[in-house]
C-alpha cells in the first residue's frame, strides 16, 4: 500500500491547476448510458474512481477511449449492452449506483449491486429507489442487488412529482437522468443544488434533455424519447480547490489556484476570510482563478462551522478546514450534520498533537497546539487530505498510510503540492 512521506514546515507558494470535479465526472460518465451516440467529456480528472467507473462501464459493454492532454474521454453505449453493475466494481465506489437511473430509463431494466456502507456513514439509497418507483419502476433487492424493471407492456418510465425526504446529491442525479427519458413531466422537489448536479443538468441539456430549475431546489424535466451525443467540459473541482485553499492557508503561503471558482466555494471562502486569510478571484469574471494569501497560523483565528447542503459549508471540506483550524488560534466547534460518522480523522490528527474532543456530531478543538510529525492512517478520502494538510505544517516527518483513499479522489495531489514547494514524496509498497 502506498504511503506519503511529508516533511512539514514549508509555505506553499506558486500556482496550481485545479482539475475537473470527481463528483461531476462520475455522474456524467453514467449519463453516457442514456444514448447510443458517442459522448465526449473533457477535463476528466485522473483519479482511481474515474478508472473504476470506466471499468464498470466497459464491463457493461460501453466502448471507452481516452484522448488528448486535457482529460479527454469518450463513451459509446450500444443498444445491446448488459445493464448490470457487479458487486466487485461497485463495492469500491459508491457513485456506481448512478448507473441505476440511466440503465432503467434507457433499457427498461437494471441490476446494480447495493453500494457498500462506507466509513463516513450508513448511506442508504432508499430515496433513489423510492423516486424510481414513483416513476413506475418495479424494484426489489435480491442477493445484495437492486433489481429494477418496467412493468410488462411499458416501454418508458413515467414522469412523477417526487419530493425526497432529505437533500441527496446522487439521489437527485439518478432521478434527473432517469426523468430525461421518462414519458411526461417529472418534478424533483427538495433537489440538491450542488454545482455538480447543475453541471450534470447542463450536460444532459446538451444531449437534448429538457430541464429547468437545476441549481435550485425544484427541477422540472420534460421527458424526451431519445437523447443524443454531446461534448461537455467537466466543471472544476470545488473540493480540490477548497483543499488547496486550506493547505496554502495553513502553511502561511501565497498561491494562485487556476480554474478554481469563487462562486462555488462561497461558504468556505467566507470562513477563510473570517479566519484572516485573503482570498480573491483573479481576472475578468474570476476566470484567472483564485488567489490565496495567508499570514500563517499564529495570525489566524480558528472558525466554528456547521456542514450543510449547498450552498452551505460542504461536508467534503469539513476535515480539511479542521486541519487548518488546528494551526489557527483559539477554540472552535465543528458540527457535522450530513454524515453520522465523519470524524475519523480526529484520532489521527490527535496523534500529531491536536487538541480535539468529539461529542456526537460536534467536535470542539483548541487551535495553536504545536503539531509534530507521526505515522497516521488515512481512513477516508477527505480525512486523508486533512492529514496531508496537518503534515505540511507539523514539525519533522509525517507518514500518511493507506493513501489509496486519497487516490480515489485527488488528481496527482503530491505532484501538485511539490509544485508549490512542499517536501512530499510517495513511497510505493
Ligand atoms: C459521488 C458524490 O457525489 N458523492 C457526494 C455525494 O454523496 P451522496 O450523494 O452519497 O450523499 P447524499 O447527498 O445522498 O447524502 C446526504 C445524506 O442523506 C442520506 N441519504 C441519502 C440518500 C438516500 O437514499 N437516503 C439517505 O438517507 C445520507 O445517508 C446522508 O446522510 O454528496 C455528499 C454530500 O454532499 C458528498 O459528501 C459526496 O462526496
Ligand atoms: C465522500 C466522498 O465521495 P464518495 O461519495 O464517492 O464516497 C467525497 O468525495 O468526499
- The CATH architecture name of the largest domain reads Alpha-beta prism
Mean pLDDT: 96
Q: In percent terms, what proportion of residues is strand? A: 25-35%
Low-confidence stretches: none
Q: Please identify which CATH superfamily of the largest domain we are dealing with.
A: Enolpyruvate transferase domain
- Helix count? 14
Bound ligands, named by name, code or SMILES: uridine-diphosphate-N-acetylglucosamine, phosphoenolpyruvate
At the first level of CATH, the class of the largest domain is Alpha Beta
Count of domain modules: 2
Radius of gyration: 22 Å
Report the principal-axis shape.
Answer: elongated
Q: What is the CATH topology of the largest domain?
A: UDP-n-acetylglucosamine1-carboxyvinyl-transferase, Chain
Helix fraction by DSSP (H/I, runs of at least 4): 25-40%
The CA-CA distance between the termini, in Å, is 5 Å
Family: Belongs to the EPSP synthase family. MurA subfamily.
Keywords: Cell cycle, Cell division, Cell shape, Cell wall biogenesis/degradation, Cytoplasm, Peptidoglycan synthesis, Pyruvate, Transferase
Catalytic activity: phosphoenolpyruvate + UDP-N-acetyl-alpha-D-glucosamine = UDP-N-acetyl-3-O-(1-carboxyvinyl)-alpha-D-glucosamine + phosphate
Binding site for UDP-N-acetyl-alpha-D-glucosamine: 94, 123-127, 316, 338
Amino acid at each position: 500500500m502506498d504511503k506519503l512521506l511529508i516533511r512539514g514546515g514549508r509555505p506553499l507558494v506558486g500556482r496550481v491547476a485545479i482539475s475537473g470535479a470527481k463528483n461531476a465526472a462520475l455522474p456524467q460518465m453514467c449519463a453516457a448510458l442514456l444514448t447510443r451516440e458517442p459522448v465526449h467529456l473533457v477535463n476528466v480528472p485522473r483519479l482511481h474512481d474515474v478508472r473504476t467507473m470506466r471499468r464498470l462501464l466497459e464491463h457493461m459493454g460501453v466502448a471507452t477511449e481516452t484522448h488528448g492532454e486535457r482529460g479527454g474521454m469518450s463513451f459509446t453505449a450500444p443498444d445491446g449492452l448488459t445493464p448490470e453493475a457487479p458487486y466487485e466494481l461497485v463495492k469500491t465506489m459508491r457513485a456506481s449506483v448512478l448507473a441505476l437511473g440511466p440503465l432503467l430509463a434507457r433499457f427498461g431494466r437494471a441490476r446494480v449491486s447495493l453500494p457498500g456502507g462506507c466509513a463516513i456513514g450508513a448511506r442508504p439509497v432508499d430515496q433513489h429507489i423510492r423516486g424510481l418507483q414513483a416513476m413506475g419502476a418495479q424494484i426489489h433487492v435480491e442477493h445484495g442487488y437492486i433489481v429494477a424493471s418496467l412493468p410488462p407492456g411499458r416501454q418508458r418510465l413515467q414522469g412523477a412529482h417526487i419530493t425526497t425526504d432529505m437533500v441527496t446529491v446522487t439521489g437527485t442525479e439518478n432521478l434527473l437522468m432517469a426523468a430525461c427519458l421518462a414519458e411526461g413531466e417529472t418534478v424533483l422537489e427538495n433537489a440538491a443544488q450542488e454545482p455538480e448536479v447543475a453541471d450534470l443538468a447542463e450536460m444532459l441539456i446538451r444531449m437534448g434533455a429538457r430541464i429547468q430549475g437545476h441549481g435550485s431546489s425544484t427541477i422540472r424535466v420534460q421527458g424526451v424519447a431519445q437523447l443524443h451525443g454531446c461534448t461537455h467540459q467537466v466543471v472544476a473541482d470545488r473540493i480540490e480547490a477548497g483543499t488547496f485553499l486550506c493547505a496554502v492557508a495553513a502553511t502561511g503561503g501565497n498561491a494562485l489556484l487556476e480554474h478554481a471558482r469563487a462562486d462555488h466555494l462561497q461558504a468556505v471562502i467566507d470562513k477563510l476570510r473570517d479566519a484572516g486569510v485573503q482570498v480573491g478571484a483573479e481576472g475578468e469574471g474570476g476566470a484567472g482563478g483564485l488567489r490565496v494569501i495567508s499570514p500563517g497560523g499564529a495570525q489566524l483565528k480558528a472558525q466554528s462551522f456547521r456542514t450543510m447542503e449547498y450552498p452551505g459549508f460542504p461536508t467534503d471540506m469539513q476535515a480539511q478546514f479542521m486541519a487548518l483550524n488546528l494551526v489557527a488560534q483559539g477554540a472552535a466547534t465543528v458540527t457535522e450534520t450530513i454524515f453520522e460518522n465523519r470524524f475519523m480523522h480526529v484520532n489521527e490528527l490527535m496523534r500529531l498533537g491536536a487538541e480535539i474532543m468529539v461529542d456526537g456530531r460536534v467536535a470542539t478543538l483548541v487551535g495553536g497546539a504545536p503539531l509534530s510529525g507521526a505515522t497516521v492512517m488515512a481512513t477516508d478520502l477527505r480525512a486523508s487530505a486533512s492529514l496531508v494538510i496537518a503534515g505540511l505544517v507539523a514539525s519533522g516527518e509525517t507518514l500518511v498510510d493507506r493513501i489509496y483513499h486519497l487516490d480515489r479522489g485527488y488528481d496527482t495531489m503530491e505532484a501538485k503540492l511539490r509544485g508549490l514547494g512542499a517536501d512530499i514524496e510517495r513511497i510505493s509498497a
